[in-house]
Amino acid sequence: MPRAQGVRNRSWLQTNSPIVIGGRLSLNKVWLAKKPYRTMEPWHYWIIAGCVLCILEIFTGDFLLLGLGIAAVGSGVAAFYDASLIWQVGVFAIISVIFVFGIRPVAKRHFYYTSDRRVSNVDAMSGKRGVIVASVPEGGQAGRVRVGAEEWRAVSEDGLSLREGEEIVVDAVEGATLHVRKPRNS
């Protein structure tokens, strides 16, 4: 084959076959240069954003970032199947709205159970029974009562005097003072 003809005929540059240059096997550099080369596809960005949002949800605990992260992963799946950017954003918006307004309130009610109205601390004192330790004089003056293992300042709810050793019932708590009365059955 004449040399000039080989230079003019460049059909071998369009193939994917390896070329032997100088006794070494090398890839067709022209073909590699013509190939569109991107480091990351759009779906990579969506998946990474979704993972980052789901990880950030660990620090907030409000289920908002989790919903946005799941929506980003959904958009990544759409981008993987070559959906246009409008479809990707649409998938993100739809999944976000469904999660934020549909699933998130149910999840918050389930995980943050707030209807437990058990009383505790001072509020739990109302209705408990105790014993007078230091008599409670009439007229609203204070005495001492023992309720459980604690000793409290107490005043008579109905203004009557209560003697040491009598059983009482706590009606209310005001600051560190118990409002007490005699039990109804005695």
Topology:
Elements: H1 3-8, E1 19-21, E2 24-26, H2 29-34, H3 42-60, H4 64-80, H5 85-111, E3 129-134, E4 143-147, E5 150-156, E6 167-174, E7 177-181
Summarize the structure.
The chain is an alpha+beta fold and 186 residues long. 40% of the residues lie in helices and 20% in strands.
Would you mind describing this structure in some detail?
Helix content is 40%, strand content 20%. It contains 5 helices and 7 strands. The chain has helices at 3-8, 29-34, 42-60, 64-80, 85-111; strands spanning 19-21, 24-26, 129-134, 143-147, 150-156, 167-174, 177-181. The strands form 2 sheets. Strands 3-4-5-7-6 form a 5-stranded mixed beta barrel. Helix 3 (42-60) runs antiparallel to helix 4 (64-80) and helix 4 (64-80) runs antiparallel to helix 5. The longest helix has 27 residues, at 85-111. The model is unreliable at 1-8 and 25-35 (pLDDT under 50).
Q: Which strand order does the major sheet show?
A: 3-4-5-7-6
Unreliable spans? 1-8, 25-35
What composes the largest sheet? 5 strands, mixed, barrel
Number of discrete helical segments: 5
What level of helicity do the residues show? 40-55%
Shape: rod-shaped
Strand content: 15-25%
Distance between the termini: 126 Å
| Strand segment count | 7
Taking all Cα atoms into account, the compactness measure Rg is 40 Å
Secondary-structure element string: HEEHHHHEEEEE
Backbone structural class: alpha+beta
Mean of residue pLDDT values: 80
